[in-house]
Amino acid sequence: MASLLNRVQSLPKGFIWGGATAAYQVEGATKVDGKGKTMWDDYLQAQGRFSPDPASDFYHRYPEDIALSKKYGLNAIRLSIAWTRIFPKGYGEPVQAGVDYYHRLFKECLDNGITPYVSLHHFDSPKTLFDDGDWLNRKNIDYFVDYAKFCFDEFKEVKNWFTINELISLAFSQYIQGNFPPNHHFDVTSAIQAQHNELLAHARVVNLFKDGGYDGRIGLIHVLQPVYPYPVTPENQHAADLDDAFMNAFLLDGTFKGEYTPKTMKLINEILDANDAHLDIQLGDMDILKKASTRNDFFGLNYYQPSFFAAYDGDSTNTFNGTGTKGTTSFKFKGVGQAVKNPDIPTTDWDWNIDPEGLYDILKRVSIEYPNIKEIFITENGLGMKEDLPEGVTDDTIIDDPKRIDFVDQHVAALLKARSEGVNVNGYFIWSLQDQFSWANGYNKRYGLFFVDFTNQKRYVKKSALWYKELADTMPK
Ligand code: BG6
User: Fold this and answer.
1) pLDDT tens, 246-259?
2) Alpha-carbon distance 441 to 241, whole Å?
3) With a 6 A CB cut-off, is 384 part of the ligand 1 pocket?
4) Which residues are catalytic?
5) Which of 66, 121, 235, 404 is the most buried (most CB within 10 A)?
């Protein structure tokens, strides 16, 4: 900690030190004030594992969470707008109550010196559009552009926008891993098409923002997962390259080069061929991507873990660890490779690799390979754990979470190292601000700086929040 404290003093004034949230994961209040259903509501109800209500009741308790953010030294917060609070079906007439809510929320942030960084889409597609194919239906892109324009015209107080959060996670979870609705497994055509269509939606919105001369900055968020061969052999290297193309390079190319480079497409085509899959790129699509590729003001980079890959020549199969029972994840992708465990790398209860070096590597890589990236923020990074309230808890109880402090300490150190070598990374948002439910895991996977007792919505401070404040206080103001 001592060395980290010294080193954060080298950060520029105004370095972003934030906490991240997503509307559906924190707001609750899914049935009030005219809100429409997302792709999750009926699905979660049918599944019966957990309910999106009351979540962290942020819809009502946002003043408390923003007050905590201020008290613990944060200067920014990542929020998302729930599309269905504004347009219940994704299109049509806006709902005033939803619009008013977000004006109140942004005002509360700004009045407290907390800059809102706002995403337009964070995994919560409107149910009506989802039923019509979600991102696989190109009409969805038009509706998204209309919704974005409405938000830019209405929420003038917001100066920092992200279009879409983690395009790959959505496509991968929906169509490859099968743990997000509509729960397809290894539907490679849909997964690659959804990525391309989401990129198009992003690019059209960026072009609209820039052509419209809106006052502010705009970008998008990708989660990057460096892929290493394990052990290092030429065959395993090729498997890692294939997985990297599917998980990282295709989207990075499309966003920041405005083309899918021949190197990436060779790998993608190998995957498509092996899976009898195809990608439909229509006339004019690449021009839209090209035009937007130099116009992103910043890049939100989410980082949790790298993966380790080995060659594999069987059929696709996977199991998903949605409970926090170690050792229950497996992933074998026909025509790509299989995820393997690297015994030198510790893992969480959800089998996520803990490897801060991966963050350093990926920051270096994107800054070299994608010169169109102007500025980077780490828009999510954090540790998901099972945590309980201790016996005899009082209002003043501080929840001890040394593993989270350690995790963030190591990852911030990796960020600083990359920065000292010239990578223009100017912010860090911990995932997450307060505890919130996890899409495919429910309420037992906690990431927050602030503990939420989901039975009564009381907030308790964790030691990581005290630690976070100590760093914030050390940074140049
Ligand atoms: C990111 C998402 O993929 O990872 C968040 O943007 C999500 O919404 C976070 O909660 C952590 O993932 P998980 O599955 O542990 O909740």
Assistant:
1) 999 999 999 999 99
2) 29
3) yes
4) 380
5) 121
- DSSP letters for 300-355: EEE----EEEE---S--EEE---S--TT--EEEETTTEEE---TTS-B-TT--B--
For ligand 1, the distance from its centroid to the CA atom of residue 64, given in whole angstroms, is 23
Residue from 220, 303, 431 whose mutation best tests the ligand 1 pocket (most atoms within 8 A of CB): 431
Pocket of ligand 1 contains residue 381 by CB under 6 Å = no
Closest ligand 1 atom, residue 165 Cα:
6
Q: What residue segments make up the domains of the chain, in order of their start?
A: 2-474
Helix residue ranges, H only, 259-306 = 262-274, 285-292
For the whole model, what pTM was predicted? 0.98
DSSP string, 49-75: S--SSSTT-HHHHHHHHHHHHHHTT--
Q: Is 441 in the pocket of ligand 1 (CB under 6 A)?
A: yes
3-class state of residue 161 by DSSP: strand
Residues 6+ apart with CB under 8 A from 347: 326, 341, 353, 354
Q: Where are the beta strands (DSSP E) in 355-454?
A: 376-380, 425-430, 450-453
50: Cα separation from own chain's centroid: 21
Query: Which residue is listed with tokens 């729960």?
Result: 183
> What number of other Cβ atoms are within 10 A of residue 394's Cβ?
7
Q: Does residue 316 contact residue 333 with C-beta atoms inside 8 Å?
A: yes
- Kindly report the protein residue whose alpha carbon is nearest to atom 10 of ligand 1: 438
CA of 438 to the centre of ligand 1 (A): 6
For residue 265, the CA-to-ligand 1 centroid distance in Å is 28
What CATH class does 2-474 carry?
A: alpha beta
Residue with tokens 């969470």: 65
- Would the pLDDT of 5 be above 90? no
* pLDDT over 80 at 334, yes or no: yes
How does residue 175 score in pLDDT terms, banded at 50, 70 and 90? very high
Sign of the Cα pseudo-torsion (240, 243, 244, 245, in order): positive
User: Do the bridges between strand 317-319 and strand 330-333 make them parallel or antiparallel, or are there none, so unpaired?
Assistant: antiparallel
Distance 292 CA to ligand 1 centre (A): 27
pLDDT tens readout for residues 143-164: 999 999 999 999 999 999 999 9
Residue 38, SS3 per DSSP: strand
